[in-house]
Design goal:
alpha/beta; 2 domains; 7-stranded mixed β-sheet; 10 helices; about 30% helix; elongated
Length: about 375
């Protein structure tokens, strides 16, 4: 089976987590801005699509070179052995982007790239008429940065954040892979309590449960590369999925709670957890932040509260931050991880974070405020 140069793309600030995931899966990696490079066969392509919790996509690098003229772009693109990836009936749309490059007209870049691929395939497959493009889809991208061209083939299809369980979103939802990143950054162990006090549609608790059970996040969805019969041997996908399913630990008992002041959001969260097959693993309940109390120890709180971006919301959001501080500061064995775009969060929370980490929630700059607890080593089980 052929080995490919691969990249896993990621949101800014998440690349190191993707790199860690890939290392844990056994790959040697090189972490770069917004992506992680590694190598693998089509088996690895499907495996990483199944298992990566924090990545956006997995792509095959088809070609990489410098180009400062359209002639150079055309010639170097045509010289690539596209026939090794694309069958005669392949449908291959070409997306493009360009940054700080002489070839800055993106529609022209896309058109030239497409034309070069068509010319190559027409010669190889002895086609004098237009290529049919009626078969499986092979999404291509030409990305130019500082005159350096990167040609990639997307193996994922719909982004990896689309796990398939979110039947209803509610307002301003956090993407599933970002929620998974928050869970991983919290260094939570599945035998400890996990709480999301402002759970919304339930994404963070659901991602925690998937992580706690070691369930492959992509197990309930398909990937566009699984349709490529010329590259994926018959039965390979089922084999990899069966292996992933066998690695899940469905017997471990999890202590995961999600709360929200809005009962409608709790209903949505419960609907989503049912779709994920996690009904009995997460307790969702309508509850205001100020009304939550616990006698448990060594827990983790992960929250994505409202940011108060609208002026009219700021007062209520700042009051919420004050309530969080008053409640959480006395919980010395608990660690708290709170994501917000409000740069004054620490002021209203009433304590400086142990550490801050810059992340991007979509295009919005946010900070993850981390307050590390001191674990009570004498208590390995939570108090009842």
């Amino acid at each position: 089976m052929q080995t490919y140069q691969l990249i896993a793309t990621a949101a800014s600030g998440i690349e190191a987590l993707v790199g860690k995931e890939l290392r844990n899966l056994g790959y040697e990696v090189k972490v770069e801005n917004s992506r992680v490079r590694f190598q693998g066969t089509m088996k690895d392509v499907i495996r990483t699509n199944l298992w990566l919790r924090t990545a956006d996509r997995v792509k095959i690098i088809v070609g990489e070179f410098d180009a400062r003229s359209f002639e150079e772009l055309f010639d170097r693109t045509e010289n690539i052995a596209w026939e090794n990836l694309l069958p005669v009936d392949a449908n291959f749309p070409v997306e493009g982007k360009s940054h700080n490059s002489q070839l800055h007209n993106v529609p022209s870049v896309q058109a030239i790239t497409k034309k070069a691929i068509v010319q190559r395939l027409s010669k190889v497959y002895h086609r004098r008429t237009r290529l049919a493009e009626t078969g499986a889809t092979y999404p291509l991208e030409v990305a130019i940065n500082k005159d350096h061209v990167l040609l990639t083939l997307d193996t994922t299809g719909e982004g990896l954040f689309k796990r398939g369980y979110r039947k209803n979103k509610g307002g301003a939802p956090l993407k599933e892979n970002m929620a998974a990143a928050l869970v991983m950054l919290a260094h939570w162990f599945p035998d400890n309590p996990f709480v999301d006090p402002v759970c919304g549609s339930g994404t963070i608790p659901i991602e925690a449960a998937l992580y706690g059970h070691n369930i492959a996040p992509g197990i309930n969805r398909s990937f566009i590369s699984e349709q490529w019969v010329n590259l994926v041997p018959d039965g390979l996908s089922d084999e990899i999925r069966d292996e992933a399913d066998s690695l899940a630990d469905y017997d471990i008992e999890l202590d995961i709670h999600g709360y929200d002041i809005d009962q409608n959001m709790i209903d949505i969260a419960q609907e989503n957890s049912r779709a994920a097959g996690l009904t009995h693993d997460i307790t969702f309940k309508q509850l205001a932040v100020k009304d939550w109390h616990t006698t448990k120890v060594n827990g983790v709180i992960v929250a994505n509260p409202p940011y108060g971006e609208r002026l009219s919301d700021k007062e209520s959001v700042h009051e919420l931050y004050r309530q969080m501080g008053d409640l959480y500061r006395p919980l010395t064995t608990w660690s708290k991880y709170i994501l917000t775009a409000d740069m004054e969060f620490e002021k209203y929370y009433g304590a400086q974070a142990t550490k801050r980490r810059k992340l991007y929630n979509g295009a919005l700059r946010t900070d993850l405020y981390q307050y590390w607890g001191k674990k009570d080593r004498s208590k390995f089980k939570t108090l009842k």
